[in-house]
Write a structure and sequence with these properties.
single chain; alpha/beta; Nucleotidyltransferase, domain 5; six-stranded mixed β-sheet; five-stranded mixed β-sheet; globular
Length: 229
């Protein structure tokens, strides 16, 4: 199985190439705003492996939720590559990728969504597979509810909102991995399963996962939350 994956839902973007179970990846700081950086790294990964895009089984991208600009970038690059090589696309949730990276069976992922909110969901994870136990939601940190039992906490929201999240649930969060961000490595691993199952979409229908439509607060909303105009 040969999968090229892109992930740009946060400031630390990455690209990864999975070939028969082995992964080579590159990190790109701030690349969510620089498509040229992503394309350059993609070309180098493929060249180093001696592969063309047409030799791949699928292209994958981290669909979010996350930074709108980064999601559109990853989706657009994946679409362009897949269209040119007549490949299907694996659309992989970025929270799913974090859950797999956490390396635990029960993972509660929460990432900072800006605007005083977090994206969160609960997952069960195994070897190169994750299953969502709840829908992804966008909530104020104080409105987040942890499902019953103990969980491994993962994601930036636990660092940004420690009192509202980690401290409040610390008796049921024995491990907190607040430095994890979605990576192309896990996107590729999850995409390999999607490709094996035939669970791919056409480039024309691939789309990011938007949990909310707003990208910024109005002045009135910022003032209502104690911010400045």
């Amino acid at each position: 199985m040969k999968i090229l994956a892109l992930e740009a839902s946060s400031e630390l973007a990455s690209v990864a190439l999975l070939v028969d179970g082995a992964i080579v990846a590159r990190r790109i700081e701030g690349a969510s705003r620089h498509s040229a950086s992503v394309l350059h790294q993609v070309r180098e990964l493929l060249a180093d492996a001696g592969l063309s895009v047409s030799a791949l089984d699928a292209v994958a991208f981290g669909a979010g939720p996350g930074a709108f600009t980064g999601l559109r970038l990853a989706c657009g690059v994946a679409q362009g590559l897949a269209l040119g090589a007549d490949l299907g696309i694996a659309v992989i949730g970025s929270l799913d990728a974090i859950a797999l990276q956490a390396g635990a069976e029960r993972v509660f992922v929460a990432t900072d969504a800006r605007m005083g909110e977090v994206y969160c969901a609960a997952f069960e994870a195994g070897k190169d597979v994750v299953q969502a136990l709840s829908p992804i939601r966008c909530l104020a940190p104080e409105d987040v509810e942890l499902p019953p039992g103990c969980w491994t906490a993962a994601g930036s929201a636990f660092r940004v909102w420690p009192d509202a999240l980690y401290t409040r649930f610390s008796d049921r969060l024995p491990v907190c991995l607040d430095g994890l961000t979605a990576r192309a490595d896990e996107v590729a691993r999850l995409a390999a399963g999607s490709a094996a199952r035939g669970d791919l979409v056409s480039p024309e229908t691939a789309a990011p996962l938007y949990i909310r439509d707003k990208v910024a607060l109005t002045t009135a909303e910022r003032l209502a939350r104690g911010g400045r105009a």
